[in-house]
Amino acid sequence: MSQLSTRHLLGIKDITAEDIQLIFETADNFKEVLNRPIKKVPSLRDITIANIFFENSTRTRLSFELAEKRLSADVVNFSSSTSSVKKGETLIDTVNNILSMKVDMVVMRHSSPGAPHFLAKNISANIVNAGDGTHEHPTQALLDAFSIREKLGDVAGKKVAIIGDILHSRVALSNIFCLQKLGAEIMVCGPTTLIPKHIQSLGVKVEHDVEKALKWCDVANVLRIQLERQQIKYFPSLREYSLYFGINKKMLDRLDKEIVIMHPGPINRGVELNSDVADSEHSIILQQVENGVAVRMAVLYLLAGVK
Amino acid sequence: MQKRLVLDQQQIAIILKRFCYQLIENHDTFENTVLLGLQPRGPIVLDKIVKTLQEISGIKVPFGYLDATFHRDDFRRRDFPLKANETKIDFLIEGKKVVLIDDVLYKGRSVRAALDAMIAFGRPQKVELMVLVDRKYTRDYPIMPDYCGVKVNTLESQYVSVEWTEKGFEKDAIWITEKA
User: Which residue numbers delimit the Phosphoribosyltransferase domain (chain B) (predicted)?
Assistant: First the structure.
């Protein structure tokens, strides 16, 4: 198979395990490209991509922009904070105006779950979801799984604990879908208030004791406490969260086993992860960032080839 | 399906040996030369050349595999995206003499893409092209081989199929077949 089963990447839920494998195999080749003295290929030189970000982002936006430029696409960037959205323009009007300027693909981040799905139904360009509210963040899940595959050889059969603010995380949901499709076992861990009700129905284990979760897993994917999404107090204080759910080097040393630590960033150092863990030999956080560009190149390349 | 044998195993072996002697004549100790096999089928020819060179003269030549999928000019003109193959080049080609190796030269588009892809590893001093089969009068680009096994006249309706024991065939052979 050399073609994706979809012309948009809206979420991991919508794609197949074969799609994910194809993206990984293509990303392997792009990773090699990124290690050349000249890190650029002309594959998308006839494509214009609009990065439409209605929410703040540093690494995702930068990663997409680099991926697009490495593929020789023309890139336009749109940020809602400096746009006509501030004057009351609707999402569809904003995007249609951008598309009238002959844009072929749209990479969109939006605070509303389903915004890219809405767009995909109304415009002709290929859509890549760069995060929609607390719903999905498919490219993050793909690069996470790709990084696990790179580090441990395979994803199938591995035990992955997703630890932290599961309730407000789009990364958690996409990771659960992606890792399960690839044959991994998943556990979510965090305070009761930050674990969604009925999450077991997705086939994941639930644990509230971080040490038990770390003992169980091969990989700990630690998530950020998303204070900006929290309208009410879910735990008494960051200090208390850190005390009960933060991960430090002493905990890892007590485990006396190989464990891979991941984090999609940005890290709240000293809250969910101590620096002695984030910067330790267990951590593959920077490899995740590096792999992000290759995986996003693969996604854009494959979507651009879908008729 | 009609099939016509172009080269049998013995003829291929003779050609590969000839290629090696030509390479030794032109590149002497291979001090400044590298060999690159064009994916997907060039590496099989390359591996045989490297092995034969080693047997003839004991020379170990730096070699690598080059994939030009991302540099092709027909991406998005096909029904499906092209699937890339592995590029494995552990050296820079800056200032080197490069010999590009492939099995069949047809339109010249793959070689053009390969020249483009190759530049990502440095600016070579000189580039030569080696092919087992040159399909005459079929070129879209002005590309000619420096080392050629055999030249054949073919129709658009024909296909040059290359069979290698490494790919599970009983013997090495090159055929001209009618496209289905």
Answer: 6-162
Which among A299, A295, A304 has a CA at the least distance from the CA of A34?
A295
Residue B77, in any domain of the structure: no
- State yes or no: pLDDT of A227 exceeds 70: no
On whether residue B90 sits in a domain, the answer given is yes
- Give the pLDDT score at B27: 95
Q: Residues A265, A301: one domain?
A: no
pLDDT surpassing 90 at residue A154: yes
| A18 in reach of chain B (CB within 8 A) | no
Q: What is the ipTM of this complex?
A: 0.81
A148, A70, A79, A145: which is closest to A107 by C-alpha? A79
* A125 found inside a domain: yes
Using CA atoms, how far apart are residues B57 and B79, in angstroms rounded to an integer? 47
Extract the annotated binding site of A for L-aspartate: 87, 170, 224
User: Domain containing A17: what range?
Assistant: 8-136+289-305
Q: What digits encode the pLDDT tens for the residues B54-111?
A: 999 898 899 999 999 999 988 777 777 788 999 999 999 999 999 999 999 999 999 9
Rounded to 5 degrees, φ, ψ at A16 are: -100, 165
Q: What percent of chain B has pLDDT over 90?
A: 86
With an 8 Å Cβ cutoff, are B76 and A305 in contact?
A: yes
**Calpha distance A265→A75 (Å, rounded):** 24
Same domain, A113 and A18: yes
Query: What's the sign of the alpha-carbon dihedral A91, A94, A99, A100?
Result: positive
Q: How confident is the model at residue A239 (pLDDT cuts 50, 70, 90)?
A: confident
For residue B15, being part of any structural domain is answered with: yes
Q: Dig out the tokens for B161 from the structure.
A: 């199929």
Indicate yes or no: CB of B116 within 8 angstroms of CB of A32: no
A2 contacts B120? CB cut-off 8 A: no
- CATH code, domain carrying B141: 3.40.50.2020
The tokens 């030009």 sit on which residue?
B68
| CB nearest A37 (choices: B70, B87, B92) | B92
Contacts of B79 in chain A (CB under 8 A): 307
Nearest CA in chain A to B78: A305
* Chain B residues with beta carbon closer than 8 angstroms to that of A304: 75-76, 81
Contact residues of B toward A, CB < 8 A: 67, 69-71, 75-76, 78-87, 92, 116-117, 119-122
Flag whether B143 is in a domain. Answer: yes
pTM of the model as a whole: 0.89
